[in-house]
Specification:
Layout (H helix, E strand, L loop, with lengths): L1 H20 L2 E9 L5 E2 L4 E4 L5 E3 L5 E6 L2 E8 L6 E7 L4 E3 L2 E3 L20 H10 L4 E5 H6 L5 H5 L5 E3 L5 E3 L7 E5 L2 E2 L20 E7 L13 E7 L6 E11 L6 E5 L5 H4 L24 H6 L9 E5 L3 E13 L5 E24 L8 E25 L3 E21 L10 E23 L6 E28 L2 E5 L5 E24 L6 E24 L3 E5 L4 H9 L4 E4 L6 E19 L3 E18 L10 E21 L2 E12 L10 E3 L5 E3 L7 E12 L6 E12 L2 E6 L7 E6 L2 E14 L10 E15 L3 E5 L5 E5 L6 E2 L7 E13 L3 E12 L2 E4 L8 E3 L3 E10 L4 E8 L6 E5 L13 E5 L4 E9 L1
Parallel strand pairs: 1-8, 1-9, 13-16, 36-40
Antiparallel strand pairs: 1-2, 1-5, 3-4, 3-6, 6-7, 10-15, 11-12, 13-14, 15-16, 17-20, 17-54, 18-19, 20-21, 21-22, 22-23, 23-24, 24-25, 25-26, 25-27, 26-29, 27-28, 28-30, 28-31, 31-32, 32-33, 33-34, 34-37, 35-36, 37-38, 38-41, 39-40, 41-42, 42-45, 42-46, 43-44, 46-47, 47-50, 48-49, 49-52, 50-51, ...
Length: 937
């Protein structure tokens, strides 16, 4: 087998060289007149009357090998006038033919993000989608700018079948975050939170992103761990020297200039910039190993002194603000060498208030009652700091890039829950949670691509990255009691009324690598391609989850916002202190690894049919090191989960006409759970609810198929219709278990199987088709209709606190139902209007709408129905204006409809909810108005 493969490579190599020796070469550079003759990447170069073509690279360069003769070359780019040039080619000689393209009579008034490449234009991405053999969609910086998108996550919602669900990330075709995967510049990237599968994409500001590619079908060179979508973020690369600064401010109804609560450490200059948290770290005297240590008087006093205690500050929420700095330089050196660098620094903050009901129910055969029935007010202050440094070098055959990305987030939250709790009748129950969610993310990448042969028919691409992450909830503290006045509480130090939690998840190391060899071959100048490669990733993670509680029996009445005065007095009087009460399960270690080899063959059959088929062999290893209840010094137990996957895929594209394609794709993939879904810890909330990881969750096996028809009537229009289907074995789903003693427990399980079928439609048209008076208007629409059905196994595996696995009867209420997280339908639409005011002031207005259908939020158990998430309508308005060569401004009205975000208890189980309202959770976000002013030097 090895000999035959080697013989094949040698034969192909010799054939390629033999053919190339008798040919001549046409090469050159295309430039963009509309961009002051900057290079024009991803343009088309075609030999008229043949199917011989090439695309310009990121530096606008192209090269075509042809037999000696006289030809006509057609240069074209979507939205630009095509140009034809004659050329005569001699054997073994190179003819240089440069060309300038312009939009000419086309009215392509794009909002240009000057710091990035032209592939970011909507028209270029349409061309990319049309020519690709795999089913993918992309969104570039230009389109995100036009639609008022400030971050990657919001930008992805403009793509067919994708919805954003607040803090739960991106849903693709109704599949939750766990079914997605993320690449940054083709390399695997870690998450910044153990509660999400991929890093929250709203942390990526659009000015550090050039293009986002979304793959809904599998190709062997991407990781097999996905069923919804793989997102590949291509970071910005400069095409010219530029320095730009942008400053923004935003007002939100019901949120800005309102009474607001902040923890003491957040209400400082350091906190405003997003660098607080130092005073919330686990006290050093507790050490790295959990104990049952009781604080001394001095230690207890120190833990509530300065900004370390339970006090909060009463203030007013200001305007949301942001600042972005972009600086890039490009240097054209000798011998076609180019060097460029890019520096992007970004900061933004957001003050929000979420107020609404928050309820959980118990389990009673006579009818479920509320365990908790709160009116909840959550004061949230979030900051995001990000920076990107990019270095790029290229010559005729080599491209190198080095990127370093840093993201830091701080979410300061004061959450007040008021109402009956724990099943008690007291209407004035009160719980306050003071929480900081903090994450640090550092990712360094080195990528290179080298043309082994001068004609670039053989290339090798390689890359490697190293990342560290840290997620913390330092000193997550809460207290509870009975509210006796506007700012008064009656409580005591016993019964866990005062509790402090310290959660740290250290991603000590994450590494990824890729090596890929590409060979173009074929007779009659057909551009067939063989790809073989390797990519893989590995990580080491360690968590610590420790508890400190109050001790003492005295009751007291105190101010809620200034409760530290009472605590300090009682510490000095020896009436209370703090002690650690962590258990032996506080520390968990997780090691993961994935290694894969793949081969892919792209073949053209005639001028109509293209086939891309391949196989990926991926080996995964997961080791969880944990302790059960017992000794802090007990050896770790180890759960091992190894898998070997053979993942085939095939993608076909048939060219029906010059402007229409039909596509087919089929593949097998798998899905791993989110870290916390399979982590052997119980994450406890102040109101008695908790989230319990299931350490014996299995990976899902996914079988996928897609058929899609695409029509591109013009360079700026598209009509597409597709159908898709998925068969998932062992789908992973969120469920809840009601318990009158400990409150509602959210956990995760494998169902037996799920089938998903759907149809997607996308439309992008110019409204001049209706009337010439509407020639500046364009309309986009994408919609998905879907049906899912889950089959539930009659038994399931359960693991107890001692690690013993037993098989039990299924606890799910419905043995057949829809897949958790899947909506039956969703719609996104946008209307664009472009116009000029005066000679230089170009304007773009966009109205963007989105809505999704009702879906299961958590699966019901023990006779109780599911919890459902209700539809949400989102309407945004964006007006972007280029005032001059230096100034631009953008106005955005966000969430104009201000719909309620609601979850409700279903009531179709064998055990009914015996309450007047089925509403489980609700809040409004408010209508946001923002203005951003940019200045380009």
């Amino acid at each position: 087998m090895k000999f035959n493969l080697k013989f094949l490579f040698i034969t192909l190599f010799i054939c390629t060289i033999s053919i190339a020796q008798n040919k001549g070469t046409i090469s050159g550079v295309l430039t963009d007149k509309e961009m002051n003759n900057e290079v024009l990447p991803f343009a088309n170069v075609l030999i008229k009357g043949t199917n011989i073509s090439a695309n310009t690279d990121i530096d606008g360069k192209y090269s075509i090998n042809v037999n000696p003769g006289t030809y006509t070359i057609i240069f074209s780019f979507v939205g630009y006038e095509s140009v034809e040039k004659p050329v005569t080619v001699k054997a073994s000689e190179t003819v240089t033919l440069n060309q300038v393209l312009s939009s000419g009579g086309y009215t392509l008034k794009d909002v240009v993000v000057k710091s990035t490449a032209n592939r970011e234009k909507e028209t270029a991405l349409l061309l990319d989608q049309k020519n690709a053999v795999v089913i993918k969609q992309s969104i570039g910086a230009q389109e995100m700018s036009r639609k008022g998108v400030s971050d990657v996550e919001e930008g992805l919602t403009k793509i067919t079948g994708i919805t954003k669900v607040d803090s739960r990330g991106i849903f693709v075709r109704g599949l939750e975050d766990r079914y997605n995967n993320l690449l940054i510049n083709d390399l695997a990237a870690p998450t910044n939170s153990p509660f999400t599968k991929i890093i929250a994409l709203d942390l990526f500001p659009t000015n550090i992103v050039g293009v986002i590619d979304v793959y809904k079908t599998f190709n062997p060179n991407i990781y097999g761990d996905f069923a919804g979508g793989t997102f590949n973020i291509q970071t910005s690369k400069p095409t010219k020297s530029i320095t730009k600064i942008s400053i923004g401010a935003g007002y939100t109804t019901g949120n800005s200039f309102k009474d607001f609560l902040l923890s003491n450490d957040a209400d400082t200059a350091t906190g405003f910039l997003g660098f607080n948290g130092k005073d919330r770290q686990l006290p050093s005297f507790l050490g790295n190993q959990a104990t049952r240590q009781t604080y001394t008087t001095d230690q207890a006093l120190n833990s509530v002194s300065n900004d370390k205690g339970f006090n909060v500050n009463e203030t007013k929420s200001p305007l949301n603000t942001s600042i972005n700095l972009l600086h890039a330089e490009k240097f054209n050196l000798n011998n076609n060498q180019v060097f460029s660098y890019l520096l992007s620094i970004n900061y933004d903050n957001n003050f929000s208030i979420r107020e609404g009901v928050d309820r959980t129910i118990d389990l009673q055969s006579s009818g479920s009652k509320y365990v908790n029935n709160f009116i909840t007010t959550d004061y949230r202050f979030k900051t995001t700091n990000s920076a990107l440094v990019g270095l790029n070098y290229s010559n005729d055959r080599l491209k190198l890039s080095f990127n370093t990305l840093y993201i830091r987030t701080n979410l300061n939250s004061i959450k007040d829950q008021y109402g009956p709790s724990g099943g008690t009748a007291a209407e004035n129950g009160f719980i306050r949670t003071n929480q900081l969610d903090k994450s640090d993310y550092l990712n360094a990448q080195l990528l290179g691509e080298y043309a082994i042969s001068k004609d670039k028919n053989q290339t090798i691409k390689a890359g490697a990255s190293f990342a560290t992450t840290k997620y913390e909830q330092p000193d997550r503290k809460y207290f509870s009691g009975l509210k006796t006045g506007d700012d008064m509480i009656s409580t005591s130090y016993g019964a866990n009324n005062f509790l402090r939690q310290y959660l740290t998840v250290d991603g000590n190391s994450f590494y990824s690598a890729l090596v890929e060899y590409n060979l173009k071959f074929g007779k009659n100048d057909k551009q067939n391609k063989l790809t073989v490669g390797y990519n893989g990733s590995g990580s080491k993670m360690e968590s610590s989850y420790r508890f400190v509680s109050s001790t003492g029996n005295d009751g007291f009445t105190s101010s809620i916002n200034n409760i530290d005065t009472q605590i300090t007095s009682d510490i000095l009087a020896n009436k209370m202190t703090f002690s650690e009460n962590s258990n032996a399960t506080y520390k968990v270690k997780l090691d993961e690894m994935a290694n894969a080899g793949y081969a892919n063959l792209f073949l053209q059959f005639g001028e109509k049919l293209e086939v891309n088929a391949g196989i990926r062999f991926e080996s995964t290893l997961k080791e969880t090191h944990y302790r059960t209840l017992g000794s802090f010094d007990a050896p770790f137990r180890i759960l091992k989960y190894d898998n070997a996957y053979f993942l085939p895929s095939v993608n076909l594209k048939y060219l029906l006409t010059d402007n229409a394609n039909i596509r087919f794709a089929a593949s097998k993939t798998y899905t791993k759970p989110v870290i916390m879904e399979a982590f052997p810890i119980s994450f406890i909330n102040a109101d008695g609810t908790s989230t319990q990881g299931n350490s014996i969750l299995k990976n899902s096996d996914n079988y996928n198929a897609d058929i899609k028809y695409e029509l591109f009537p013009t360079s700026k229009e598209m009509i597409a219709v597709g159908i898709f289907g998925k068969h998932i074995i062992n789908p992973i789903e969120k469920t809840f278990i009601s318990n009158a003693t400990t409150g509602t427990v959210t956990t995760f399980l494998n169902s037996e199987s799920a089938n998903i079928y759907g149809i997607e439609a996308e439309l992008l048209v110019g409204l001049e088709r209706i009337s010439e008076n509407l020639d500046n208007f364009s309309w986009g629409l994408n919609a998905t209709l879907m049906s899912s059905k889950v089959t539930v196994s009659p038994t399931f595996e359960s693991i107890d606190e001692d690690g013993v696995i037993t098989v039990k009867p299924s606890i799910e209420t419905h043995q057949s139902r829809s897949l958790q997280g899947a909506s039956n339908w969703l719609v996104n639409s946008d209307l664009k209007y472009e116009f000029n005011l005066g000679k230089d002031m170009t304007n773009t207005m966009s109205l963007v709408y989105g809505v999704f259908g009702k879906r299961i939020y958590a699966v019901g158990t023990n006779g109780q129905d599911n919890i459902y998430e209700l539809p949400v309508q989102q309407l945004d308005f964006v007006w972007g204006s280029k005032l001059s060569d230096h100034f631009d401004v953008k106005f955005t009205a966000d969430n104009i409809l201000n719909s309620w975000r609601k979850r409700e208890f279903g009531n179709e189980g064998t055990i009914k909810v015996d309450e007047s309202s089925l509403l489980a959770n609700s809040y409004k976000k408010g209508v946001g108005f923002s203005l951003k002013l940019g200045y380009t030097f």
